[in-house]
TrEMBL record:
This is tRNA-specific 2-thiouridylase MnmA. It comes from Rhodoluna lacicola. GO terms for cellular component: cytoplasm. It catalyses: S-sulfanyl-L-cysteinyl-[protein] + uridine(34) in tRNA + AH2 + ATP = 2-thiouridine(34) in tRNA + L-cysteinyl-[protein] + A + AMP + diphosphate + H(+). Catalyzes the 2-thiolation of uridine at the wobble position (U34) of tRNA, leading to the formation of s(2)U34.
Length: 368
């Protein structure tokens, strides 16, 4: 097969490309330039897709003996990921930019361009596995390396996209083994630290970055009954579940800490209350997709596992499609679920699909 290897400049994508070459595929490496500031450099393990990363990817491609290109996706990345991130926060939601990047950049724009150029598949260093069911349909499953499993952020992939995807690291034993393999292959990125935090906010201060983009918008902080407890400089500075930085002078009647329960952008209000009120019994979203073949029956309640954070636990739940929404009811309440987050459904290790959460239902009603 003719394979386009997406090379981020990290050890995982370099080893994935090496394995694709070793498997006998015709491999071409490509690095996506996503930053609009061409002078951006990585700071330790913060940030990614920088000039430094591009050079690391180039060196890896040279060792592997494959052609290498840099494709400028900065404009689309700004529109589809960065601008979307800002808009979601302004709308009172908590977005996951990695999900949007996988959905709109790596497995939409990149794959579309790859197919147009005659490639059969895009290869990445994600830790996830592709398996085939008894009818020959592709399924996305968790990686054998549970600690590094990235199937959650790939939950946005469709059946058609799975047909043109390769994840050579899916059956890997551990990240330590990947680093040893990179060292054996002579790849200089063998000991390069993993990137973390949001790639376009390399300093790691999301609130400060958002304030610089949208400015301040003073409003009120209220309790669940509507009593005003304090003021804030902008709802974008808060996320559901946040405890620190609320700046409420008056303590709660029971003396316990308050947490952000809800963000209401229309009234520019932040709602706070006890930690127990963060418990969510139900979540739902109208923007849902199936990863691979969809379930045959979706109108009846079915038992599944649901995960709402990249490294969170998969929790027992039931789901059904009700009046155009994917509705998920948890067996046990989950703390701190926010609109804008992504709920990924699993059947065992298989990814069934995902939805962007539009609304949640508290396990504890107001006044309880």
């Amino acid at each position: 097969m003719k394979v386009l290897a997406a090379m981020s400049g990290g050890v995982d994508s370099a080893v994935a490309a090496a394995r694709a070459v070793e498997a006998g595929h015709e491999v071409v490496g490509v690095h996506l330039a996503l930053s609009r500031n061409s002078g951006t450099l990585r700071t330790g393990s913060r940030g990614c897709c920088t000039i430094e990363d591009s050079m690391d990817a180039q060196r890896a491609a040279n060792v592997l003996g494959i052609p290498y290109y840099v494709w400028d996706f900065s404009e689309k990345f700004k529109t589809d990921v960065v601008d979307d991130f800002v808009a979601e926060y302004q709308a009172g939601r908590t977005p996951n930019p990695c999900m949007r990047c996988n959905e709109r950049i790596k497995f939409a724009a990149l794959l579309e361009k790859a197919l147009a150029l005659g490639f059969d598949a895009v290869c990445t260093g994600h830790y996830a596995s592709l398996l085939t069911d008894s009818d020959g349909n592709l399924e996305l499953h968790r990686s054998n390396e549970v600690a590094k499993d990235q199937s959650y952020v790939l939950g946005v992939l469709t059946a058609e996209q799975l047909k043109h995807s390769m994840f050579p690291l899916g059956a890997s034993a551990s990240k330590a083994e990947i680093r040893k393999e990179a060292d054996r292959r002579g790849l200089s990125v063998a000991n390069k630290p993993d990137s973390y935090d949001i790639c376009f906010i390399p300093e790691g201060d999301t609130q400060d970055w958002l304030t610089d983009k949208v400015g301040k918008a003073p409003g009120q902080i209220v309790d669940r009954e509507g009593a005003v407890l304090g003021t804030h400089e902008g709802t974008h500075e808060f996320t559901v579940g946040q405890r620190k930085g609320l700046s409420i002078g008056r303590p709660a009647a029971d003396g316990k800490p308050r947490y952000v329960l809800e963000i209401r952008p229309k009234t520019n209000t932040v709602v706070v209350g006890p930690q127990a009120a963060l418990a969510i019994a139900e979540m739902a979203g109208s923007r849902f997709t199936w990863c691979g073949m969809p379930p045959k029956e979706t109108s009846e309640w079915a038992e599944i596992l649901v995960q709402v954070r990249a490294h969170g636990d998969a929790l027992a739940a039931k789901f059904a499609i009700v009046e155009g929404e994917m509705v998920i009811r948890l067996e046990e309440p989950l703390l701190g679920v926010a609109p804008g987050q992504t709920a990924v459904l699993y059947a065992g290790t298989r990814v069934l699909g995902q939805t962007t959460i539009d609304r949640t239902v508290s396990a504890i009603p107001v006044g309880a």
